[in-house]
Design brief:
Elements: H1 2-65, E1 70-71, E2 78-92, E3 97-109, E4 113-125, E5 131-141, E6 146-158, E7 161-170, E8 185-190, E9 197-202
Antiparallel strand pairs: 1-9, 2-3, 2-9, 3-4, 4-5, 5-6, 6-7, 7-8, 8-9
């Protein structure tokens, strides 16, 4: 009887111990899994960050070698000194008014001298007062040579005058005096105080 009681007691303790061992194994296994996952995650971060760093290094390297266009603000190629508004015609009444405007400017052009600029603007008048302008024109020298151009501008017109900024693209001409402008791009601006000024974008 004592033997059976001792056997049952030992068996019960072994049973409990087996659960403790299983629990310890589970805890150890969980720690190993978590540690391994942490190591793998850290490795993934390092691996994934390497291409990002390489890309940044390449971008910085290329940026140092990048040749950009420069704008010589001290030497405009075109400076208007007077202008005459010839007339306007409405092309569309809404929701944004579109008008066709004509004007002539007198200006000084670098390497040429006094010129006349005959201009046509297609202006879209937006509800907020902003005007988007697509323009074209012909600049003519005193000896009859000329060059055509197109432009895209944005600005406003109010009681103080006109304020516009845009891009000008000169076309190709056979006129020798204007040959330096063949296919050239310029930045133009016009303020109430200073009439239309164009700077070439130098490559």
């Amino acid at each position: 009887m004592h033997y059976n009681l001792f056997y049952k007691t030992v068996k019960k303790q072994l049973y409990i111990l087996s659960f403790i061992v299983i629990d310890m194994q589970f805890i150890i296994l969980s720690i190993i899994i978590l540690f391994g996952a942490g190591v793998l995650l850290q490795n993934d971060k390092e691996v994934l960050s390497q291409p990002y760093q390489i890309v940044n290094e390449i971008a910085d390297h290329n940026l140092n070698k990048l040749v950009t266009n420069s704008l010589n603000l001290s030497a405009p190629v075109y400076q208007a000194y007077s202008g005459i508004f010839l007339g306007t015609k409405n092309l569309s009444s809404g929701p944004s008014l579109i008008s066709e405007d004509h004007a002539i400017e007198k200006a000084v052009l670098k390497n040429v001298g006094n010129v006349t600029n005959n201009m046509t603007f297609i202006n879209t008048h937006l509800p907020d007062g902003t005007i988007q302008s697509a323009a074209k024109g012909v600049i003519t020298s005193e000896d009859g040579q000329s060059i055509s151009w197109i432009s895209s501008d944005i600005g406003i017109i109010n009681d103080q005058g006109e304020l516009f900024h845009g891009i000008v693209q000169f076309e190709i001409t056979n006129s020798s005096s204007f040959s330096f402008l063949n296919n050239a791009t310029g930045i133009d601006t016009q303020t109430p105080d200073i009439k239309r000024t164009i700077w070439l974008v130098e490559k």
